[in-house]
Amino acid sequence: MKKIFIPFILCLTLMSCGIDSANKTTNSQVETTPELTVAEQDAYQLLLTTSVFASTAVVFAGSAPMQAPAFQELLKSEHATTLFSDLQKDATLAGQLYGLCGLYLTDKEHFDDVIVDYQNSHSSVQTFFGCIVGDTPLTEIVPSIVDGRWPIAYKNCVTE
């Protein structure tokens, strides 16, 4: 037990030192993390970690998936462009697609710069379209993001 405990304490100590030094700012550093509402934080976290790219109407009732209101919450944020850009860079592959949809609506120039990597990708992502769950190649999804169908569908989706 002692053999496990000592490295654990050492690791925690080193991590806390790194966190403390990372949080200190100098006069030349500017804090770039926006202050988010709780709803924005929850929406961002959901899209950051989602494993599914879902259509705007799922299951037999055609209900909006939980990702739709999360997308709309970020879209109405004053930090929308930053949040969608961060999703595109840092999220799961499914979350990156939501980030791309948001960038299409908030910063088309940046969207045009980053979409190329996705257009040439041979990856697949888990999808939930209607009542069908499966893996879909990005080559089948990305064209509908590029032409605006997915971004506009998420923007206009009724979530209540």
What does this structure look like?
With 160 residues, the chain is mainly alpha-helical. It has one domain (37-156). 61% of the residues lie in helices and 12% in strands. The protein contains eight helices and three strands; from the N terminus they run ααβααααββαα. A hairpin with a 1-residue loop joins β2 (124-130) and β3. α2 packs across α3, α4 (80-90) packs antiparallel against α5 (93-106) and α5 runs antiparallel to α6 (108-119). It is globular. It starts with a helix and ends with a helix. Mean pLDDT is 82; it is low at 1-31.
Essential attributes:
160 residues; mainly alpha; globular; disordered N terminus
Proportion of residues in extended strands: 5-15%
The average pLDDT value, as a whole number, equals 82
State the strand order across the main sheet. 1-2-3
Shape: globular
Number of strands: 3
SSE ordering: HHEHHHHEEHH
Q: What is the oligomeric state here?
A: single chain
Helical percentage: 55-70%
Q: What radius of gyration results from the CA coordinates?
A: 19 Å
> What is the end-to-end distance?
52 Å
Helical segment count:
8
* Low-confidence segments: 1-31
